[in-house]
Description:
Blueprint (H helix, E strand, L loop, with lengths): L7 H9 L5 H14 L8 E3 L13 E3 L2 E4 L6 E5 L2 E2 L12 E6 L2 E4 L26 E10 L5 E2 L4 E5 L21 E5 L5 E7 L10 E7 L13 E6 L2 H8 L5 H8 L19 E5 L3 E10 L2
Parallel strand pairs: 8-16
Antiparallel strand pairs: 1-2, 3-4, 4-5, 6-7, 8-9, 8-12, 10-11, 10-13, 13-14, 15-16
Amino acid sequence: MAQHGHSLEEDLQTMLNATAGRRRSLRWLLAGAASLPIIGCGGSSDSAASTTDGVATGTTGTTGTTTTTGSTGTTTTATGSCSVIPEETGGPYPADGTNSNSSGVVNVLTQTGVVRSDIRSSFGTMSGTAAGVPLTIKLHIVNANSSCAAAGGFAVYLWHCDRDGNYSLYSGGVTNQNYLRGVQEADANGDITFTTIFPGCYSGRMPHVHFEVYSSLAKASSASNRVKTSQFAFPTDICNAVYATTGYSASVRNLAQISFATDNIFSDGYSLQLATVTGNATDGYVATLTVAVAA
């Protein structure tokens, strides 16, 4: 195509001087404006995050609207009617084959039994059950690259600490446990449910849950296939109610010393990562969150 070197001002002047006359030129202007496309929001491409339990070093490239907070914080991409959940670190305890514990590389994703809804007990050759206030986690997975449609068939690997703040397979006293870890496949509506216990609060972090999203259950056997790594949190008043129960005494002290503003993951914003929680400490809680990914 030939280069067009005229300025907008020159083009308008030429058009207005055309022999068709002023009214015809105005009709041309209006018709041209009506035919211009409406520019929407584009998708995103997320870079890899760090592997420590600090602020994710990855950023999100976009072709649409972005909102960025924090010098090394999260970039959120608005795509259609949903916003892609921020990329976060998987932390030091993923057990997805990307790091080691005291015995070497650990990868539960390849182990028989990891695909399950109830993650309170250990599986495979390990035995033991994590105690704590019952928690049902309901995630709704949508794909921002498909007009935010339900991501049926996607899979999630989810893990979190126990009520004492320890991570199975890594922390002292629970290296012989693999509880509070599991993989689930989303149904046709993009919905996934996990049965677990409310995590404790350990020093330096707000209570949270880690998860990785995969485009299929088959791909969830290798961390290299993950399309999103993130975390979600709980309302502080719910945490206080849970930690007032038996077994969470250490969490009371730790939670009093931390806040969303000082947490090294959520301090740059957590609106897309705050679960909606209903229930009570006696009967248990239900945490729900919509997770938008660009895949």
